[in-house]
Amino acid sequence: MSYANVRGFSHYYEWITESGGQAPSGKPVLVFLHGWGGSARYWESTARALCDRFDCLLYDMRGFGRSRANISESSPLATPPDTTADLSYELESYAEDLAGLLDALGLERVYLNAHSMGASIAVFFLNLYADRIERAILTCSGIFEYDEKAFNAFYQFGGYVVKFRPRWLYGLPFVDRLFMQRFLHRPLPGAISRDFLNDFLMADYDAALGTIFTSVSKKATEVMPQEFARITVPTLLLSGDRDIIIPAEMGRQAAALNANIQYVVIPNTAHFPMLEDAPTYLNHVRSFLGIGSTQTATIGS
Q: What are the backbone dihedrals phi and psi of residue 240, each rounded to the nearest 5 degrees, phi first?
């Protein structure tokens, strides 16, 4: 397991390469960002399908997956305690984390594929660091309209869900399927669903709750349209037509703001089109990246 010190916080990362080695081979680098409550684990099959042309970098964002604890003062990676004092759960702060990770790994210019909350973070990164991105893929992203009553209900429900996550839930049969039901139109293999549940149960409380308030907020509804309109990097935005988390219409509205954004809707998929219909998803991604089609990996392999 590899960790990098990014702004005083220990970030888990891993390389998926064609040779299977845990170091980049010199190919262009494709970086993956996961969504809320998840980890890089669910990107593994997509990365393996693309590692014939890219060295794929997966990492867990601050407070999620395997990046859940601050570096201790006794760690060889330790930095002065006040280095994390200015870190927040704003999306822009997570974009700064990504820049720090690229710096730590010596990566100047990369390709980017980001999902859900990770895609919102990626939009900020594209505008803050456009010179570091060749092309970007945003999976299940879009623009929310502010509704005070609905947002307050969401915060209340989200706070309850984050607070009451007993670890024993993981041991109950079929809980993983119930947990994933809202996110999917097509079922996934049990092992993948259990990884999702495990990541959610293990996410840091402050990070999980903090990013709920920054991802779905009045500020986000005001700022995100401007950020989408500012993108100068060639970008592909993909939505699932059955997605109830970030409906396809929200993605369509975001793409309509900028001629640099190509928009695609994948039929009969919901919030995880890269897992629900991997061949279709990968064909669109490969076409956008100009690398043609090839045999795709099987989900769960």
A: -95, 135
Other beta carbons less than 10 A from residue 49's beta carbon: 24
* Alpha carbon distance 190, 160 (integer Å): 26
**Residue written as token pair 């992203």:** 141
Q: What are the start-end ranges of the E strands in 148-281?
A: 235-240, 261-266
d(CA 132, CA 146): 32
Tokens of 146: 């502010």
Phi-psi region of 12 (alpha: psi -120 to 50; beta: other; left: phi over 0): beta
CB–CB of 248/240 below 8 Å? yes
Provide the residue-wise pLDDT of the chain in tens; the chain has 301 residues. Answer: 799 999 999 999 999 999 998 899 999 999 999 999 999 999 999 999 999 999 999 999 999 999 975 443 333 333 333 344 468 999 999 999 999 999 999 999 999 999 999 999 999 999 999 999 999 999 999 999 999 998 999 899 889 899 999 887 888 887 888 889 889 999 898 889 999 999 999 999 999 999 999 999 999 999 999 999 999 999 999 999 999 999 999 999 999 999 999 999 999 999 999 999 999 999 999 999 999 765 444 444 3
Q: Structure pTM? A: 0.91
In angstroms, rounded to a whole number, what is the distance separating the alpha carbons of residues 193 and 11? 23
Q: What are phi and psi of 227, to 5 degrees?
A: -65, -40
Residue 88 class from Cβ within 10 Å (0-12 exposed, 13-18 middle, 19+ buried)?
exposed
Summarize the chain as % helix, strand, coil (round to 5): 45, 15, 40
Say if residues 169 and 197 touch (Cβ distance below 8 Å): yes
Nearest-5° Cα angle at 263, 259 to 266: 175
Helices (H), 203-294: 205-215, 218-230, 248-255, 273-276, 278-289
Q: Are 77 and 104 in contact (CB under 8 A)?
A: no
